[in-house]
Specification:
Transcription Regulator spoIIAA; alpha/beta; globular; single chain; 24% strand
Length: 425
């Protein structure tokens, strides 16, 4: 049978969809592009914003249009929070994705629609493992699920449940297997990665200490971590261990103390600045971030305070999001909501600032030599991603996908970085 899979949202969803894909292939199912005529469609949904919900609904409708007789399976965050609104053959939330074969085979026998939604405050970590990450030179490994933070704008704790972690030995075995299969770079991901291990008597720093010992592991990268979860030991490892990537994605969300408090973020701008100053002592470190603009009660002076904070820190890049109301969160009920026009204008200002930061960071690296993994993209570009996550475009002569090479940065045009291979490692 032919299966089309659509994965929306975060890196955790990408990982889980890869697990589902692998299970289907192992059981003889043929994976086809989502818009092809398939026998089964699987939509792994996102629900981080109201727009995400709309996109999830759109993809469900598209599957039904592609083939009216197909089996439609909806899973993930949108189905976890809005299962009553979904019309599909099988609906599951953020548990039982690893049971996909059993669920399909049961449906084929019984032809009975099912909705299986659990209270995620009462479940353990769902054991998942991959041995291949199709069409990627880098592999994601999910190490934890859930979040206990309850930021006022965020639905994730309600759709992903409380923090639960993958057994440390299971993580080590999965990473070891991927490295043995030829993957040079592993990215650790989760919903709240920095809190890994608090439920199983271990920690992220203990896990990192074990993972960097794995034979032939070239690079280990963290997908995202909160500023107040960077322990002195992790910072020391970033300084001294070349396997750990010299790039951190640390969401700030606002540079105004008033807004940070309303968001229920657990740090002040002063604490954030102090920590980033420590991080910038690491040579060549790249710091990227997430920022929400137009949050309720964000006045012009608060926005200007944020800009001043961003200039003080000097991120490499800012991923900017206009605040989007999310039903079911405290922020949705706040007064002082900003207009779409205000959010749009502030978003443009931050994008311009981010572009300036990014270009400046890249310009400062001209003439420097870094090592990285070759990725030959479908658009024809051949890119080397350095440890500090600079995407260096090179000519593809003399290199192959997944090679490790030394590359010298020769020029920067806007946000494009160009370089030449110095030698093959």
């Amino acid at each position: 049978m032919k299966v089309g899979i659509c994965s929306l949202g975060c890196k955790v969803n990408i990982y889980e969809s890869e697990v589902v894909t692998s299970l289907l292939k192992d059981h003889g199912y043929q994976i086809v592009p989502f818009d092809d005529n398939a026998d089964i469609y699987i939509i792994n949904t996102c629900s981080v914003t109201n727009e995400s919900d709309k996109k999830s609904r759109k993809m469900i409708s598209r599957a039904k249009r592609n083939n009216r007789d197909a089996i439609v399976i909806v899973m993930g965050c949108y189905s976890q929070v809005s299962s009553d609104d979904i019309e599909a053959d099988i609906v599951i939330g953020n548990k039982d994705k690893s049971r996909i074969i059993e669920l399909i085979e049961t449906y084929l026998k019984e032809r009975e629609k099912k909705k299986i939604i659990y209270d995620l405050t009462k479940v353990d970590f769902e054991k998942m493992e991959i041995t291949k990450f199709e069409n990627h030179t880098r592999a994601f490994v999910k190490i934890q699920d859930g979040c206990n933070a309850f930021c006022s704008y965020c639905i994730i704790p309600y759709v992903r449940g409380r923090i639960r972690s993958k057994n440390k030995e299971d993580v080590i075995r999965e990473v070891t297997g991927l490295v043995e299969d030829g993957y040079k770079e592993i990215i650790l991901t989760g919903i709240h990665t920095g809190r890994y291990g608090i439920d199983i008597n271990t920690s992220l720093e203990e896990l990192l200490e074990e993972l960097v010992k794995i034979s032939n592991l070239y690079r280990l990268r963290l997908s995202s971590i909160e500023i107040n979860e960077l322990t002195p030991k992790i910072i020391e490892m970033l300084k001294t261990n070349n396997i750990l990537a010299k790039h951190l994605h640390i969401p700030i969300q606002s540079g105004s103390n008033k807004i940070l408090k309303l968001m229920n973020r657990r740090y002040s701008k002063e604490e954030f600045i102090q920590m980033t100053e420590k991080l910038k002592e690491i040579p060549d470190i790249s710091l990227t971030t997430d920022l929400i603009v137009g949050f309720p009660h964000e006045e012009n002076e608060d926005f200007n305070e944020t800009i001043a904070t961003l200039n003080k820190i000097g991120f490499t890049k800012i991923h900017t999001f206009p605040y989007s109301r999310r039903k079911g969160t405290p922020a949705d009920k706040m007064d002082g909501q900003n207009s779409p026009e205000t959010k749009k204008e502030r978003t443009h200002q931050i994008i311009e600032l981010s572009n300036k930061f990014e270009n400046s960071y890249y310009q400062s690296k001209i003439g420097k030599i870094y090592d990285g993994v070759v990725e030959i993209h479908k658009n024809g570009h051949t890119v080397v991603h350095t440890s500090n996550f600079i995407p260096v475009i090179i000519k593809k002569e003399r290199v192959s996908n997944n090679d490790i090479v030394n590359v010298k940065i020769t020029s920067v045009k806007g946000l494009n970085v160009y370089g030449e291979v110095i030698n093959n490692n």
